[in-house]
């Protein structure tokens, strides 16, 4: 554990040195600083996805595999509106009923979650009640202790599987040889950003995870739906925010790999508004800093996985700070170069449109406005979450965002 914390400190120090070096380069030579910063951003969003796509394994795979006992694990806190529907969805699967159980871990809900669960009459359902709030990681640990399945399918209360999702996940585990398979979760509720931004981003993430898994390993599961062999799970500390990322990293550092099953689809209800999505994004950024401070990332000796982590996660977490440096360099260069002035003008115009898009929901019906608004929201949230993560203690007790009906 001390080694992990030391490794995390080294990575955070390296990030600080990198950003300060870029700032120094911009001050001493704005043109070089601008080109380097722009190059890093292009690599993150264009270069790395292109590399992963070009070098992934295109070999066809079988789709059948042996049946195993499966436990669907649902951590829940104040989910009275969705929990009964969620349990029904988990039970209504093509997977054999005699090999399927559902465990709902109630993390000391203060609403009618337990009462709604008690109304479900089914021998496949087990309810685990926590008397005190502990957070999602502790809820997962309690659920795993109660599970009978060889395979654990972890999911959230607002994620609803298609009819063959569990069967597809389990088959991929058996046939592809991965100890963990993540599913393809899609957003619903078109009134938030009109599905032009958040769902586009999530679709890009799914595409990237799939090609990463075909090349080497997906760098992280989608916490909304993934299957993992029980023996492969190392539950993270109880105060962990990004439990799905911590479980993924623990598996990778043991030598395991994470696959992606695009045919195992599910629908997730999106946040009900801008502020709810902003709070969710701040918490994700806070959790990202927590993982870095604790050294929860693929070890450098796992060379390919570590490179994937840096390219897919770490550099993307740094995006708002890289953008600030890029804008600073453009502002300096604008005195001498017309193209710098035009780029700066384009950036200011785009951010202005994005801001008005956040303030005026109707404007987000236009695809470009919606995407710009969502990008601005995410970048601001990263800055806020990074600040909280660096200077305040993290609170593992999650509060789900207000959502649209499923």
Any overview of this molecule?
Helices cover 53% and strands 14% of the residues. The chain has 406 residues and is α/β, with parallel strands linked by helices. An eight-stranded mixed beta sheet has the order 3-2-1-4-7-6-8-5, sandwiched between helices. Helix 1 (2-28) packs across helix 2 and helix 12 crosses helix 13. It is globular and about 75 Å long.
Give a short summary of the structure.
The chain is α/β, with parallel strands linked by helices and 406 residues long. It has 13 helices and 8 strands.
Any key phrases for this structure?
53% helix, 8-stranded mixed beta sheet, 13 helices, 406 residues, 8 strands, alpha/beta
Structural class by secondary-structure content:
alpha/beta
Question: Rg to the nearest angstrom?
Answer: 22 Å
What is the number of E strands? 8
How can the largest sheet be summarized? Answer: 8 strands, mixed
How many DSSP helices? 13
Helices and strands in order:
Elements lengths: L1 H27 L1 H25 L15 E7 L6 H9 L8 E8 L5 H6 L6 E6 L5 H11 L4 E5 L3 E3 L3 H12 L3 E9 L9 H18 L9 E5 L13 H11 L4 E12 L4 H20 L9 H15 L1 H15 L4 H22 L7 H25 L15
Parallel strand pairs: 1-2, 1-4, 2-3, 6-8
Antiparallel strand pairs: 4-7, 5-8, 6-7
């Amino acid at each position: 554990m001390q080694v992990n914390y030391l490794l995390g400190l080294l990575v955070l120090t390296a990030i600080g040195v990198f950003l300060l070096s870029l700032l120094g380069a911009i001050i001493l030579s704005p043109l070089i600083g601008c080109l380097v910063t722009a190059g890093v951003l292009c690599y993150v969003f264009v270069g790395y996805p292109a590399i992963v796509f070009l070098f992934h394994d295109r070999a066809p795979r079988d789709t059948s595999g042996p049946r195993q006992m499966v436990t669907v694990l649902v951590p829940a806190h104040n989910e009275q509106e969705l929990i009964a529907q969620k349990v029904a969805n988990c039970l209504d699967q093509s997977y054999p009923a005699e090999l399927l159980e559902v465990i709902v871990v109630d993390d000391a809900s203060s609403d009618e979650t337990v009462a709604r669960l008690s109304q479900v009459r089914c021998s496949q359902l087990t309810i685990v009640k926590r008397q005190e709030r502990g957070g999602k990681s502790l809820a997962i640990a309690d659920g795993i202790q109660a599970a009978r399945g060889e395979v654990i399918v972890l999911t959230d209360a607002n994620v609803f599987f298609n009819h063959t999702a569990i069967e597809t996940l389990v088959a991929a585990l058996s046939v592809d040889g991965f100890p963990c398979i993540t599913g393809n979760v899609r957003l619903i509720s078109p009134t938030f950003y009109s599905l032009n931004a958040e769902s586009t981003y999530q679709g890009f993430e799914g595409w990237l995870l799939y090609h990463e898994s075909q090349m080497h390993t997906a760098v992280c599961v989608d916490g909304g739906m993934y299957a993992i062999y029980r023996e492969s799970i190392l539950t993270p500390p109880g105060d962990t925010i990004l439990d799905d990322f911590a479980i993924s990293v623990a598996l990778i550092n043991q030598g395991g790999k994470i696959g992606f099953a695009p045919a195992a689809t599910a629908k997730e209800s999106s946040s009900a508004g801008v502020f709810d999505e902003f709070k969710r994004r701040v918490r994700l950024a806070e959790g990202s800093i927590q993982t870095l401070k604790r050294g929860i990332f693929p070890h450098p000796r796992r060379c390919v996985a570590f490179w994937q982590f840096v390219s897919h996660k770490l550099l993307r977490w740094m995006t708002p700070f890289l953008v600030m440096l890029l804008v600073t360099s453009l502002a300096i260069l604008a005195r001498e170069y017309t193209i710098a002035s035009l780029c700066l003008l384009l950036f200011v115009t785009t951010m202005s449109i994005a801001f008005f898009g956040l303030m005026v929901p109707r404007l987000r019906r236009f695809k470009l406005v919606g995407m710009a608004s969502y990008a601005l929201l995410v970048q601001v949230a990263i800055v806020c979450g990074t600040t909280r993560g660096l200077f305040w203690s993290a609170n593992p007790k999650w509060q789900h965002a207000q959502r649209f009906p499923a």
